[in-house]
Structure formats: C-alpha cells, structure tokens
Amino acid sequence: MVSVNDRIASAAADRSSELILSGLGLTELPEEVRSLSGLTSLDLSNNELATLPPWLADFTALERLDASGNNLQSVPESLRTLRSIRTLYLSDNRISYLPTWICDLGSLRKLDLEGNLLTILPACIGNLTELTHLYAARNSLATVPFSLAALESAHIDLERNPLAPELRAAYEESTDDLRAFLRNLERDGEFMREAKLILVGEGGVGKSSLLATLRDEEWIPDRTMTHGIEVKPLVVSVRGVSISLNGWDFGGQAVLRPTHQLFFTAPAVYLVVWNPRMGPERNFVEYWIRLIRHRAGTDVRVLVVATHAEHDQRNLHVDERSLRDQFGDMISGFHYIDSRTGLGIDELRHSVGLTAEQLPHVGRWYPRSWKQLRDALHEGGSPYLTYPAYERIAGEHGLPRVEARSMARIASALGYWIYYSEDVGLSDVVILKPDWLSTAISLVLDDPETARVHGLLQHRRLPRLWNDASRSQRYPPHLYPAFLQLMEKFDISYRIPDRSDGVGPSSLVAQLVPPQMPSMTQWTEYGRELEASKLVCEVVDSAGGEPTAPEGLMYQLIVRLHSLSLGRNDFERSIHWQGGMVLDDEYNGRALLTISGNKITVEVRAAYPQFLLHRLTEDVRRHVEKFWKGLAVRIMVPCQDECGDRTPGAGLFDVEHLVASRSHGHSAFPCSRCGTWLQIDSLLEGSEPATSRGSDLADAIDAVIGPRLAELQSAVVTQGRQTLEAVGDLEFSTQRALSQAEERYTNLILALDEEARDGPRLITVAVLEPKLLRGGFAKCKVRVTLWCEHSRLPIHVLDGGGGRGLYEIEVTRDWLVKAAPWIKATSMVIKSLLPAGFLIPEIDLSGLAKDAVDRAMESTLTSLNEVPGLQSRVDAASSSQYGRDVRADGSLLRTLHAFLRQNDPSFGGLERVRLRDRYLWVHPRFVNRYRLPPPEVPAVRGVE
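That's the non-specific serine/threonine protein kinase sequence above. Prediction below.
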C-alpha cells in the first residue's frame, strides 16, 4: 500500500498539480504538504481532520479542494485567501455556520455543503454569481436568504431540510419557482403569523358550536350536524400579537374519515372534542389522537376539549395522565367548556393561541401581493374560479402570469386551495374552498344507490347527486369532470373501461366495494407451475412500534394499483373486496394482496416473482409512510414448513434484520413464535431481488429474447401489449429475462428519484476522444444521448432520425472518472431493456433503427474501456448493486443536467410527467399515457 509520504514525495518529484490523500485516516495535514503550494487540486476527503493548517492560505493556485467526510466544525480560516478556488467540497462534516467571507471567493463554481449542521446560509450567498452548483441538502435550514434568487443559472439542492412550508412548496415545484418566490419576498415581503386549527371527534359532540363560540358567534340551539367539512377563520391574540387561524370543522361520520384524512396536516393545532355525557370511551378520544399522530406525525399539538360541561362534570373526566404518557408533547392541555354558556371558552381561546405560537413556521415571510390576492379570493366568497378568471384577478393585484401560476401551485401545496397545473382539465379550475369540494365527495360516499351496487358510480347519475334542487348545496355540471379527476387524485375512485351492458362512463368508488371475498378461481388456478413468493407489510406506529391498522388503506391501494387490475380492460374480470384484490402484470406475474389488521400480505406467482413482489411491497411502504407521517412499514417474510409449530407462515421475520444478521456472519435466525432456528438463506429464498450484475444479465436477456424479437413484436402490435402474457405462449426463460430487465430499470429510476425533479435520468455518455485523456489532458468531448423513460429508447430514434437528444459537450476528466460507475450502470440497464422496449405497440422500429440503438449502446461501453484510469471504476460498477452505486453519484447527474441545460433547456423535447409521487421524462408521443383526458360525463336533461 502506498503511504502518505510516498504520495507526497511522488507529487513533489513529478511536479504534479494534484495530490490525493483521501481515506487515509489523517487527523492532521502532514507538514510535508506545505512545500507543494503550487497544487491546483487537493483531495483530503474521508479522513478525520478537525481543522486545516493556517499555511494552507499559501496555496493561492488551488482551484479544487475536497475536504468532505471529515470532522470539520467550521470552515477553516485558511481558505479565506484562496481566490482561485472553483470547486469546494465540504460535505459530511459538522459545520454549523458559514462565515460571510466565503462570499468573497468569487471564482467558486461548485460549493458542496451537504450533510452538515447549517441552520442558515449567509445573506451574501447571492454574490457568488459564478456558482453553477450549490449543494445544501441534509442540513437544518428552515429558511434561505432572498439573495439565493440571484444565482440564476445554479443548480440548488435543498433536499431533506426542515424548510418553511411555502419554501418547501416552491422548491418542490422547481428551482425556478423557488427563485421567483424569493424575488417576490425580497421585493414585497410581509411577515405574517398563521396556523391551522382542526376540530375532530365523533358526530354530535358539538364541534361546530364550539368553533362558532370561539368566533364569538351567536349561540344556535339544535345546530345542524356538519356534513363534510366547514372552514372558518379565527383570530386569537397572544401577548398582544395576533395569529390568524383557519378553523377546519370536520363532520364525524365514519364513512367520511378516510377522506377527511386528506386534510390532516402539520404543523397545526388540533382540538379533539368529546361529550362527557357519553364518556371518553364512546367518544373514542384516544382513537382520534392516535389517528392525528398517524396521519400528521408528531409536529402537531392537541388540546382535548370536553363540551357540555355545564357543571364541570369532572367525574366523567378523561384519563389525562394515561394520554400524556402515550402521546407526550403532542398533548398541550385538557379543557372542559360549555359553548352555550361560554364556560371555559376564554381559557381555551388563550390556550389555542399559546399552542399555535409554539408551532414551527407559525411566523414567516410571505409576498404581500400574494397574501392580498389570497385574501381577496377568499373574501370574494366564490368556491371556485376558472383559471383565466383567477389569472385576471391576479393581474389586478400586480402579479404577472408566471408569478400567478407559481402562486397557484404553491398555495395549493400549502392547502389554501386546490390547483394542479400539470393535469389536463384540472389546470383549468382553481378550487378556492376545499370544504366545498369535500362536501361534494361526501355526497358520493353517502349515496345509497352507489353503495348498493358496491361502488359502481355511473357518471350519468352525478347530476342527481350534485345538482339536486332539494339541497342547499348545488354544483355546476361543467365541474363534474374535474371533481372526478380530483377523486382519482385523492385515491377515492378510478375510471373503469367502457362496459358492454350500456351503463355508460363510470367510476369505481373503492370505499364502497363489497365486504365479501368473491370467487378466486382467477388466482387459485393461475400459474401452478410458476414460482411463488410471499412478503408481509406490517404497519406500526413509528413512535412506539405498536401494530396499527391505517384507516382506509385498502381502499387507497385498490385505486393506486388499478392499472394492474385484472379488470383494467374488462371491469367484469376485476377481483377486489374490502379485504384484498388480485393484480396482474403480464409477464411479471400475478399477485394476491390481502389485509388483516395491520398486515398486508403480498403473494406473487411468476417466472421471476421477486420483481413484482418487491415492486408491490415498496409501493405499499412508500404510500403508507408518505400519507401517514406517524407510521412505518416493516417488510416481513413468513416462515416455511420447517417452523417448529407446524403452522407454515405463522412466524414472521423482519427482512432487514435477516439481511443484517447474515452480513454479520450468522446463518440462522430464531422464530419469535416457536423459537426454532431457521436458515436465513432458506427464509429469504424467492423473496430477495436477484443480484444480477454487469453485462452478464444484459447479454443473457439478449440471447433469450433476441431470436424471438421480430415474432413477439409482430404479435404485440396486432394483439396489444396487454395480452403479452399469452402472446406466443411466452417461454418461462423469456418471462424471467423480461422481468429481470424491468427490475434493474426500476432500481435505476428509484435510485435517482430526487434528480428527476429538474431533469431526465436515462442518459448515456460516450467518450469521443479517449486519446486526449491518455495524453493527460484535463478535459475531453463526450457524446450525450437522452432516452425516453417510458419506452427506454433514444429520442432521436423515436423521432425517426435527426439530432434531437444528441449533444457533444466538453467535460472534465475529474467528472468522467467519478461518473464512470454511473455511466456503466445506466448503460447496462438500458442494454438489458432494449428487447422489452421494442415490444411496445406504438413502436414499430425497422432493423436499421435497432442497429442504430445497438451501435449507440456499444459506443458508450467501448469508449469507457479506452480511457486510462477508468477501468477499475468501471469494473467496480459491474460487480456491485446498481441502486446503491448510482444513488451515490446523483450529484454527477445534476452536474450533467447543468451542462445540458446550457445547450438545450428543453432536454430534446422530453416532457416531465407526474406519476403519483414521482416524475418521469418521456417522449411527447407517450405523454397521453400519463395525462389522461378529463372523464366523460353524459348530459342529463331535466334533473332538478
């Protein structure tokens, strides 16, 4: 092994401009380095340095310094004089603040601060006008300086910071939206104090009367029970300072609870309201607090409020000590009030104010023009506006079109109204009153006829539900398609294909599916010769680990996974009920999902069951942990026949624990049910993804599918890909090969999920001048090819020729060396996917086109092998798991995005489409697969 002194001596002897001392366990920089003051690049990463020596200030020629992965607690003062520094890596240290002098390093182009302890960035950060990359992910930033907007061309990474809600919403839309928002704040910012007040509890306990009394409204005896949600403003004063609260009054009907959870957010003050006359058990006080924690997490505060306490009925008090023990700081207090007499109301109002004052982000900056527009829209009283009308009013308040659209999206993310700019139909309307929409949805959920036919909602019946003259609340028919789309977006319903019985356009309301399990022959008789694998998703409270059954989970899964339903083309073939469903993914196999308590069991039969099994369990986990902030999912594998209690499947083993135990050299693990020690490999068999790596899998897939490609493509084009399972009676090896290719692609896409917000992930890079790098040049030209993330084919091939999506750009050798594993991994994933891409019905590629794709692929792989110094990194990529390695190089992809954006901001015409909670970049010919047209609603005459 080469020692530290050897490296220093070698650099001195060769008069090298670069010194690499990475990963050597250094606690201080050796004095011998001092003589190398002419260095332009110094790599000190992954050591144990707590500081850097003062003499480093003499390295005035230094252009690149990598001090990432050390123990630095501050930015070393010795860097202050390095005015030539262009790249500064300080990630994964313990730095808690940035000195203002860092803004004087005017040559900085890349500043990496990821994974530190920063709570603020200096206000002068915008002075670094040459900056192209600012990485500040994984810090403790609640806000960012206005001057960040001055970094016009910089990529800004703020992932995993506790940003204020409006900053988070702007950032998640795009970096440009964040810049626009910051410019508005700097020009027209206003400090405001605002929070959300949510009243929950069983029906009839007095929530509406309580909110009315808090608002000083006149007492109304026998008040009508709230149906759905009502939202009313409330202003409280704390120490002479006003806080504006939006009071959300939720109806207590059980059928509406899964829908109401959509509006449970943090930070907020919650009032859990109960009636002492009924007792806390019948009021489900603990249930409501637990539901709040599961849905919104622990960043909320709860006041438990007993109503109808005319004589302070403490003999019926709730067990305050037990609730505090269970929920800790979530519980802010207990109150006994009477809305009719005003008993305890002043104390409660004061307590609400004190509690709201302590919420994170209750005080924050907001553009004055935005606030004025928002207030004007709400004061106008209209429950909705067409987008042109909204845009016109925004213009009257001084907001140009771009800012108006940005505000519409950000305010929607904050829950002020509902607007989705990327959905055809929904982009034409702004729903200003979410409670108005919630009431419309509740009319569907409460409809006896829809319940009688197990959730089959005929669109022609909508006027009878939403425009009934006997109801005070009526809805205009032109909004019905948008309402249906919103129900789809909220996982309440999905459109079903046209039926042969003449009922017309319809949707399935998942909450109303039958409780009984239907005939299961389509599952029991399917694929008896195929492999079968099973996993269990166990849902637990993330705070205490207790088993928890999320309210409405199966209904949401029925909607979210309906594209895999057996009935996606023929509704009559669907198999779903309140306890489960059967899914089918063509050559990837068939699955049975069932739910019992807090356990969702996923069983798959397929030639290669691991792919679909892990895709579905990951979908369940992602959905639960995103929607219910206070819940977590453990992936469990059931025991086998050798279990000691002779009940196969009764014992469950945490997959994460099994893998960790095996990595520590253990071969067996005890069953928690019967104590029998079982072999880990046996338990995980069929439940782990294959560790197929490198070019072997790509070549194997091509060998299996290649000879049959023309036959398969012809059959798919004529019969439709949805019947691919039966096309040519696909051989076991072909199905397995296709599924393994899909698995690798899914891993790649998920590994670079965060980067997809600002640019595509499916990119290949071919080195055009490897001889330059052999000659020691620091830069070289590469050809970059963009690929469609739907078809997995190059843009220029999908265009039928031309140069879209092809670029020749110059990159540094440093970038290329670091990017080698990612380039190789991406290239091999694409190579393994090519056969599957040619099977998409919309694609009828000639042999010449296929040859062009193959040549593009091979040029990438061949050129990497010709670059000196890359082979070891390329080999490492071939022998490791793609998801992990690619994710580590996400910053490299962001750098490439910046290069490409300078040449072509449109990324070759690729369009970003939203797929649930992630993005895809697809060729325009496939956009309609992800942006469905509005639902059809037949006109019905004479309905009043």
